[in-house]
Amino acid sequence: MQSKIIISNDFEAIKTEFLCDKDPNYLRFFEFENALVENAREIINEAYIAESKEKTIIVHAKKFGLEWQNALLKILEEPPRNIVFVIVSPEKNLLIPTIRSRLIMENRTKKPNMKPLNLDLTRLDLKTAYNFIDEQINLEKEDKLNKNELLILLKNIVCKALDLGIKFKSEDLEYFAKLYKLAELNAKVPQILTPLLLLIIKRQK
Question: What is this structure's pTM?
Answer without folding.
Answer: 0.58
